[in-house]
Design a protein that fits this description.
Length: 745
């Protein structure tokens, strides 16, 4: 009896091994999630949501400027918060420099249309300019397509983006921003010492990135420059007179440039910026001299005005200044002024103000993480308390029955037939690893999902250490594309591994490798080409040049496809995985009992997909909304925590759905575990599309609606593939663990 009891305890401990394994894994996942939350908490408590000291890591080095040295100001694309279609600055009738050129752009800059060009603005370090005329454009309103485009962009609230030393120009406003954290509101940060439109140094509020092009003149003479109607303005008057309204051009810019003087770099200079030498000082002792510094650019802000005749007209007789109408018979004169302001902000911290989030945004992210953690904890307890306890009870019952039958058999001298009736998930032990229908497609999608999962992990890791900061424009998208191309090896390897495990004598090896190389990249390329064709017909700067297509196809055919076949070849040369090593497969599939509609596979998928969707949607909405509002998204601390939480929820959802499926004596868990997690991405796509096209009224423009739909589709496809692959892989490990713990006759 003692020996039998010891044997029973030994077999009991072996049967509990897989559950101990899963409990340890769940504990590790929960610990990782909490660690991510602690990292974000540490960053928050240090008043830095993201550490910008990491800007030194990517090789971005500061540029020093001496007094009088030319500091180039470059113009970028035209963007709007009401549409996702960018345009090129020089498609409008604007002042053009003697030679328009652009620095060598990376792949990400070209794909997003964010290419910089030289501008006609001439600025010298620490030399203020009260009034400089750029040019005068005659018949501004009769420049053909350029004038029509300008009028269209003014109606759609487009802004011109500019950069100096890679710092974006931020518009300043005299009024306080809208409600804090509102989607369309400004950041509201107070900037002191800047020059306003009346030439007075004062404190103003930081608005959005870029400068507006113009405004509609309302019947009461005011300028309609925002989405909100000004006080005392009848909205109906604006709507009824929209077609015949006159337009004002913002033709004068007041630049306020902040610079940080380097320590021990002071020297004397003349008013024209030339350094004072001893012999020059002796030759002209009465020359005007001031102290100058070698300095670095740490910020650039601007206010805009509509002044008929430019700044010279304003300086001549301010009382007669009127707005600059676009159809003025004397043309439109563009001008600017420059005011250099010393700042104590270090170069390494110059992006802090642009990357900082409002208190409302920070609270929103914390509430999202708290809600997600609560849901993850509840789901973890559900998996541990319900599934693990249920499986443990089943296994103990099987062990007791087997021990009793073995005891009876020994007492009868070995002449009894020791069999017992199975029930529940054990009944499908000989069919649970039967290859599903469309197994080739499942293998290909699984490989693509794991490839994207590794790409996301690399991207988040690089972003967390500062390599993907906004000062490197386009580097995020470039990193994503190159990582995706190189990690095609994983797609081919994972898909071949699964296919070889399902089919012991695979006869479609080449087909799996071919589909892994073509299916998902081809679908993404089709969506991209459709969106690019629409942008090309629209004349947008977001349309990819023809030469860039050769680069994309080169990454696909020269890098991605060979690596996919290489990964498949390596996987096929290894011994195939044997999932059902202790359970022989029945020759005839077992009959699946009929279930009510509320327990059907479709209903199970639709309900189960809600869990990952509810956890991830709030953060997805926050990131997408900031991108559409042309704000910087640099919050890898929050994104890392949410990513860990979402992956934990996806894994646990896959386990729950798989257990319910097997417990209903249904061995068709393969596609069910995959599609449950995959469908959460479909929910995300529908919710984002519905919210932004209807809630934000982005559907007024067909081109914008199609482009936005394409972007949302690609992002949701990535989410669906990653979620499906992670949920399926965890479910496969779960099934293997529980069936290895039982003895099947």
């Amino acid at each position: 009896a003692t020996c039998q009891h010891a044997q029973f305890e030994n077999r009991k401990s072996k049967s509990m091994a897989p559950f101990a394994f899963f409990l340890r894994q769940m504990h590790r996942v929960t610990a990782a999630v909490l660690l991510g939350a602690l990292v974000v908490s540490w960053e928050y408590n240090n008043n830095n949501v993201v550490s910008v000291d990491a800007f030194y890591l990517p090789g971005v080095h500061p540029q020093n400027f001496d007094v009088g040295e030319n500091v180039p100001l470059k113009v970028g694309r035209l963007v709007s918060t009401r549409t996702t279609v960018p345009y090129e600055y020089y498609k409008l009738p604007m002042c053009v420099p003697a030679k328009v050129s652009s620095p060598l752009a990376n792949l990400g800059e070209v794909l997003t249309g964010d290419v910089l060009y030289t501008s006609p603005y001439k600025m010298q370090m620490q030399l203020n300019e009260t009034c400089q005329t750029t040019c005068t454009i005659r018949n501004f309103h009769k420049k053909g397509a350029g004038s029509k485009l300008w009028k269209k962009l003014v109606d759609e609230r487009y802004h011109a983006t500019m950069r100096m030393d890679n710092m974006p120009v931020v518009e300043l406003t005299e009024s306080a921003p809208a409600s804090e954290g509102a989607v369309g509101g400004t950041q509201g940060r107070l900037v002191t010492g800047v020059t306003s439109s009346d030439g007075v140094h004062k404190s103003m509020f930081a608005g959005g990135l870029g400068l507006p092009l113009g405004a509609r003149i309302l019947p009461n003479g005011r300028l309609y420059t925002s989405d909100e109607f000004e006080e005392g303005t009848d909205p109906q008057d604006v709507i009824q007179n929209a077609g015949k309204a006159d337009y004002a051009v913002f033709n004068h810019i007041n630049f306020s440039i902040f610079y940080h003087p380097l320590p021990k770099s002071r020297y004397s200079v003349y008013a024209n910026g030339i350094r004072v030498q001893d012999h020059r000082a002796l030759e002209d002792p009465n020359a005007e001299v001031f102290d100058g510094y070698t300095a670095r650019i740490v910020g650039i802000y601007a206010t805009i005005e509509s002044v008929k005749g430019g700044c010279k007209k304003k300086m001549g007789n301010p009382s007669e200044v009127n707005v600059q109408k676009w159809n003025d018979k004397d043309g439109v004169t563009f001008s600017y002024s420059v005011n250099w302001i010393p700042s104590e902000t270090n170069w390494a911290s110059r992006w802090d103000a642009l990357l900082s989030m409002s208190a409302h945004d920070i609270d929103t992210n914390w509430y999202t993480i708290a809600n997600s953690l609560l849901m993850t904890t509840c789901l973890t307890f559900l998996v541990a308390a319900v599934i693990v306890r249920s499986l443990r009870r089943d296994l103990l019952k099987y062990e007791e029955i087997e021990e009793m039958l073995e005891g009876l058999n020994e007492e009868a001298g070995g002449g009894l037939l020791t069999t017992h009736e199975d029930f529940g998930w054990k009944l499908v032990a000989h069919d649970v690893f039967r290859p599903p229908k469309q197994s080739t497609l499942l293998c290909v999608l699984y490989g693509a999902g794991m490839q994207l999962f590794y790409v996301i992990c690399i991207t988040i890791s690089l972003g967390a250490v500062g390599f993907l900061n906004p000062s490197n424009r386009g580097v995020l998208l470039s990193t994503w594309l190159f990582s995706f191309s190189v990690l095609s090896y994983c797609a081919g390897n994972k898909s071949a591994w699964l296919y070889q495990a399902l089919h012991k004598n695979p006869i479609e090896k080449r087909r799996v490798a071919m589909q892994s190389a073509w299916l998902v990249p081809g679908a993404a390329m089709v969506v991209f080409c459709i969106s690019n064709t629409i942008l090309w017909f629209e004349g947008s700067s977001g349309a990819v040049p023809f030469g860039t297509f050769f680069v994309l196809f080169g990454l696909w055919f020269i890098v991605s496809v060979p690596l996919t076949f290489l990964g498949s070849t390596v996987a096929y040369r290894k011994e195939p995985e044997d999932f059902a090593i202790s359970h022989k497969q029945n020759a005839i599939p077992r009959m699946i009992p009929e279930m009510p509609y509320y327990r059907s596979g479709t209903m199970m998928i639709m309900v189960g997909a809600l869990l990952p969707f509810l956890v991830s949607f709030a953060q997805a909405f926050f990131v997408v909304s900031r991108l559409l509002l042309n704000k910087f998204v640099y919050m890898f601390g929050f994104i890392t925590a949410v990513f860990l939480i979402v992956m934990a929820v996806i894994a646990e959802t896959g386990i729950v759905i798989t257990y319910w499926c097997l417990n209903a004596e249904d061995y068709r868990w393969w596609w069910r575990s995959y599609m449950t997690c995959f469908t959460s991405g479909i929910y995300t796509f529908i919710a984002l599309l519905f919210y932004f096209l209807i809630g934000f009224d982005y559907s007024t423009n067909f081109v914008n609606m199609m482009v936005l739909t394409g972007h949302m589709l690609l992002a949701s496809l990535v989410y669906s593939l990653v979620a499906g692959a992670v949920g399926f892989r965890v479910s496969l490990a779960f099934v293997g663990a529980i069936y290895d713990a039982i003895k099947a006759d």
